[in-house]
Amino acid sequence: MDKPAGTKLAVIWGASVLLIAAALYISLTNGVFDMGVMDVIRTLLRIDPVPEHDLVIFDFRLPRIVIAGLVGMSLGVAGAVIQGISRNGLADPGILGINAGAGFGIVAFMFFFQGQLKSADWMSVFSMPLFGWIGGVGTALLIYWLSRHNGVLDTQRLLLVGIAIGSGMGAGTLYLSLKMDAQDFEMATVWLTGSIWNADWSHIASMLPWIVLLLPLLIRKAYYLDLFQLSEQSVISLGVATDKERNILLLASIGLISACVSVSGNIGFVGLIAPHVAKRIVGVRHLRVLPLSGAIGMLLVIVSDFIAKTVFTPVELPVGIVISVIGVPSFFYLLARAKRKGGKA
After folding, report:
1. pLDDT tens-digit readout, 218-232
2. Which three-class secondary structure string do you get for the chain?
3. Per residue in 99-108, pLDDT tens?
């Protein structure tokens, strides 16, 4: 890497770290119960701790901020991977229906087993990502199979099939949720709109194994995403086992998405917006795009969650709605740009 490029990357990452740190500071110190920066520092460092400050930071704000950051990072990386696999800039876990499939798996778990397992039970907390992964994988395989034409993945068909399958999964999720009792239905409805209001440390623990195992794997295989931008024949001629590597990347990204859906519900558009912003900043090399997509996704969800819980106090909006306010216009902008370029996303 030449020196100017290295300097530019250092500036980009420095700015990213500063923005995320600012978002963390604002989220920790502001809310219904405002705190000063020294109150936060003393509480975190355990210097003359105050019970009220411990409650606000360790039980309410910090778990929520950590989950928002992990969800944003994971969705940003997974979105960049799926766009790289499909060679479609409009591909997004939410738009392709993978979020809906993972959500269907988790609502099915809630419907069949939640009466027997308490919501705070460790078995329940750790089972939800697994059921989400099963639902996400099943949905992705169905979309992938229906999107192939003459043995090759058709990226245009992928988007249309994903929207159709996602709608079907959403209908199935709604049917199951309507069969629940009133209390479970209310919880499922809030959760499906994309909300992390009920975050706690057990939910963070349920996400961490998936992130620790799958995120490094995706970064390590970023090189293959660059190769997938070539024609199928060109990639095969380089000796790459395309189906094997594509399946590994797809399954790993679905694992991340499912872990996110299990704790935050269906938060869309992060995986669409973050990769496009990252590519505008650092180019198209996925070894640079994936980490920056994760950082941008982290910043987006943390800021959106802060807006969701403070702007309309005491009423709290689901964070998914706040992100959709940004995501829907972004999607139409990208769709119009793709049309100007000849109909290719």
Report:
1. 999 999 999 888 877
2. CCHHHHHHHHHHHHHHHHHHHHHHHHHHHCCCCCCCHHHHHHHHCCCCCCHHHHHHHHHHHHHHHHHHHHHHHHHHHHHHHHHHHHCCCCCCCCCCCHHHHHHHHHHHHHHHHCCCCCCCCHHHHHHHHHHHHHHHHHHHHHHHHHCEECCEECHHHHHHHHHHHHHHHHHHHHHHHHCCCHHHHHHHHHHHCCCCCCCCHHHHHHHHHHHHHHHHHHHHCHHHHHHCCCCHHHHHHCCCCHHHHHHHHHHHHHHHHHHHHHHHCCCCCHHHHHHHHHHHHHCCCHHHHHHHHHHHHHHHHHHHHHHHHHCCCCCCCCHHHHHHHHHHHHHHHHHHHHHHCCCCC
3. 888 888 888 8
